[in-house]
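Structure first, sequence second, as always.
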């Protein structure tokens, strides 16, 4: 019997390949499914099942394409949702035979009402592993406020109460030596304090996970899991509906998104489509020359998450500027979070645009050392675009917190006629922030190269630190 975790860092997402005696199952696949098919072919295995732990919000699952390409059955836990595709709606406790092993569905409502975990039982009848989706993470549990975005009567308090019961009655009674394989790790917006670790034993989680404390009352639990939640990215409900209703094949989406456009064709598409240009190059390179209106969301970062956070509508037309050879990667990663309306990419990149005689813009960046020099001679205004929790932990004295996560609200704090110096932790988010605001007419924003890390290393700024009060967390 084989179990492989396929972890995708930019989404902090774990999919799983399970195989026994020539039969395989995939749990929570990403949208591009060919890698799973290749894995099975290399092992002379047939993919029999696609198990879904719930209707995902943070990415579009590959369940539909994978079933079409392999003939596998799609399995969900108990749900009242009618899907736009054929699926087995499993019952609590139902077992599915996989080679010499079996996989038992354990219905664990709370993160969503259909949320289910899958218990792997080996050929000897031993319970070995639990694939927990967004019900139980390493160090955390799934947030119980997302399903209400789709079903209004499901309040977060009701869902949190269900989650408490699911954890206590369905998961915690299992053997301590069971391996927990969660759906996400640190960096995912589906939880708030997940560990960097991506597996653990259930016994260790009972000792270390705040939400599994044996002495917790249901009221304590509800308070703990709801405290500190921030609004989820705007694309989440749209991804849920795509996962329920169905979607266009990812192969077709990527093919359309990788149409090579000459500078003239690119400009024409921009003029007639109301498209947003997403320039995926390194922030430092982007700042030296870009097309007016471009959003710089670097591909070498949490690309898909920030696209979904800053562009609210997944149907938004998009044009791509990318480093040569990475265009398909960009289109694929956009499709992972449901952005299927990519119209193509600039053939030859910015160099071709400039060679065609077309205009570019630049963004001014300063080092932390230079910023310190400027601050010595005059009063300056600093924008800190990190999350509020990061800002509260430590920040430059008198800096204004304008989180990128809540760009619309943050913009209200900014005077278009005033100059601001903008930083994040390392420079990735600050360039996203500055580039988007530049596209909206904010021309007096200067990026701080290296972000908070460089500012602290310069030792020339007073840093205010905050110590959180003791709580249930």
């Amino acid at each position: 019997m084989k179990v492989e975790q396929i972890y995708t860092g930019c989404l902090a997402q774990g999919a799983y390949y399970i195989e026994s005696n020539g039969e395989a199952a995939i749990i929570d696949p990403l949208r591009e499914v060919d890698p799973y098919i290749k894995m099975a072919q290399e092992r002379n295995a047939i993919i029999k099942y696609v198990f879904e732990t719930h209707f995902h919000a943070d990415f579009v699952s590959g369940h539909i394409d994978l079933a079409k390409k392999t003939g596998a059955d799609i399995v969900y836990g108990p749900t009242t949702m009618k899907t736009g595709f054929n699926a087995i709606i499993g019952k609590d406790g139902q077992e599915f035979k996989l080679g010499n092993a079996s996989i038992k569905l354990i219905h664990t409502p709370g993160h969503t009402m259909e949320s289910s975990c899958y218990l792997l039982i080996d050929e000897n009848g031993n319970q070995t592993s639990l694939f927990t989706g967004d019900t139980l993470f390493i160090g955390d549990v799934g947030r119980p406020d997302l399903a209400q975005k789709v079903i209004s009567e499901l309040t977060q308090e009701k869902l949190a109460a269900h989650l408490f019961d699911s954890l206590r009655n369905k998961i915690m009674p299992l053997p301590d030596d069971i391996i927990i394989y969660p759906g996400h790790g640190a960096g995912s917006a589906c939880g708030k304090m997940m560990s960097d670790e991506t597996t653990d034993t259930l016994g260790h989680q009972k000792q270390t996970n705040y939400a599994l404390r044996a002495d917790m009352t249901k009221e304590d639990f509800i308070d703990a899991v709801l405290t500190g939640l921030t609004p989820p990215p705007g694309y989440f409900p749209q991804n849920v509906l795509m996962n329920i209703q169905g979607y266009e094949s990812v192969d077709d989406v990527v093919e359309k998104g990788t149409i090579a456009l000459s500078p003239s064709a690119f400009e024409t598409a921009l003029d007639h489509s109301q498209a947003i240009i997403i320039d995926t190059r390194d922030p430092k390179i982007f700042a030296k020359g870009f097309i007016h209106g471009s959003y710089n969301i670097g591909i070498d970062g949490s690309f898909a998450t920030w696209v979904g956070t800053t562009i609210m509508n997944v149907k938004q037309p998009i044009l791509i500027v990318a480093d040569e050879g990475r265009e398909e990667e960009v289109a694929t990663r956009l499709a992972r979070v449901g952005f299927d309306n990519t119209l193509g990419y600039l053939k030859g990149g910015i160099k071709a645009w400039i060679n065609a005689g077309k205009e570019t813009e630049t963004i001014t960046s300063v080092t932390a050392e230079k910023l310190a020099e400027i601050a010595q001679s005059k009063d300056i205004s600093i924008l800190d675009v990190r999350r509020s929790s990061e800002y509260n932990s430590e920040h430059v004295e008198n800096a204004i917190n304008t989180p990128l996560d809540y760009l619309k609200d943050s913009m209200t704090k900014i005077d278009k006629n005033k100059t601001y110096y903008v930083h994040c932790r390392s420079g990735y988010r600050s360039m996203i922030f500055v580039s988007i605001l530049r596209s909206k007419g904010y021309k007096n924003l200067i990026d701080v190269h290296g972000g908070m890390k460089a500012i602290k290393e310069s030792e020339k700024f007073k840093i205010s630190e905050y110590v959180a009060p003791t709580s249930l967390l």
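Margin note: Confidence is low (pLDDT under 50) at residues 467-473.
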